Amino acid sequence: MAKMNWAAGTQCVAKGDHRKPKPGELAYHKGDILTIVDTSTRKGFYQARHNTTGEEGLISSTNVREREALRVDPSLSLMPWFHGKISGPEAVGKLQPAEDGLFLVRESIRHPGDYVLCVSVSGEVIHYRVIYQDNKLTIDNTQYFYNLIDMIEFYSNNKGSIATTLLKPKQKQGAKSAELELSKTGWLLDITKLTLGENIGEGEFGAVYEGEYMGQKVAVKTIKCDVTAQAFLQETAVMTKLQHKNLVRLLGVILHKGLHIVTELMSKGNLVNFLRTRGRSVINSVQLLRFALDVCEGMEYLESKKLVHRDLAARNVLVSDDSVAKVSDFGLTKVDSKVSDNIKLPVKWTAPEALKKEKFSTKSDVWSYGVLLWEIFSYGRLPYPKMSLKEVKEKVEEGYRMEAPDDCPPGIYSLMKICWEQEPRRRPAFHKLREKLEREMGKHSPDPGSGRRDGIRILRL
Ligand code: ADP
Prior knowledge:
By secondary structure, the protein is α+β, with helices and mostly antiparallel strands. Helix content is 27%, strand content 23%. It folds into four domains: 10-66, Roll (SH3 type barrels); 79-169, SHC Adaptor Protein (2-Layer Sandwich); 186-264, Phosphorylase Kinase, domain 1, CATH 3.30.200; 269-444, Orthogonal Bundle (Transferase(Phosphotransferase), domain 1), CATH 1.10.510.10. Strands 7, 8, 9, 10, 11, 12 and 13 form a seven-stranded mixed beta sheet that branches. A five-stranded antiparallel beta sheet has the order 4-3-2-1-5, with no helix packed on it. A five-stranded antiparallel beta sheet has the order 15-16-17-19-18, covered by helices on one side. The chain binds adenosine-5'-diphosphate (ADP).
């Protein structure tokens, strides 16, 4: 493979072992994930950090490959062995030639909604009916499972009361094993290296835990429902493509009883709670501007990738230990602009054309960004206070807009107003907004050089 000129921050995968490093070199094993820190130290070498041990040292550029993004591909499946509705005889046909431990799962034709585990053993196929009981799945009324993934994982490691452990999945035609693809691209993490800590949040689809992955503090989103996990797999695939200091970074995933999405830990939680719990007495307007700028830069990056977030709001912005705001929750992120299910749309954040005609675009994200600015400068208030969703929809359509939050700098309120232009084309792009915010920052920060904690430039115009 041709050698690439990699930038600092690139994640790469070790192609082989390097167990006996010379002084200054980094030790690693095949498949380890390393982050390039500096490319200019020595010819043919990169200065890199080991993602799991945190150690730093030189690595030979020929011994690593870049961690690829996972292709967003609907055939990518967490359950490639699931064949849907096929009959018993069809299942038997698929499990030929016979091989002990070859298996598949099908949905029963006679009892729709019931699953059947079909396993080849001693030249025959045994069909185990999976019973759904008290929200759990079981074959023998002894072992219970949250979902099929959980069940297959168990019987792949234990014989339990079935005739053989499951040895080889018979993949459905056209299905691609997510596990295999994740592992090939370097995004599959090792559950034995993860220590789960306290529950730090409840998402719509699962709990979020604090944890540690080989010395690094992480957040782990656990998704137990197999159908939801499959949907989140697409979210994860999107995240593998994105790297920016203002987007919550994906470290990888773990497949165990469902899906665990491992991201960097944002120890100060979500932005709404952060603002509400601290308030005016603790957070000054420069800090508010920094948050606004952080989010804007993250969105500018999404804009440059032609990705639409669709659910931008302060609750979906998280705050790191060093108080950098990062955009999270790419659950709805899509390249295309039509969505069929608008029942759950966050009305107070969604642009009128997106609410009415399902027209989502970067410009509808800009509208949401305006609402987020309002949330920031009102220290986490709920937008359109005291108005019902129905009222908001009607009034906004008629041209009503929120008033400026108390003590909001006039320049910032003008930004909100242009984000809320009825006509999407008239709203500014994120890169324009960023320039305007930087100008605003210049006005508020007495010493622009020390204005930011992480060296972001401030334009003096
Ligand atoms: P939802 O499903 O409601 O969009 P999430 O599942 O993403 O929400 O997260 C729920 C809550 O868990 C967040 O509001 C936040 O407080 C916490 N949380 C999520 N991800 C992280 C993270 N990476 N670091 C710290 N806290 C997090």
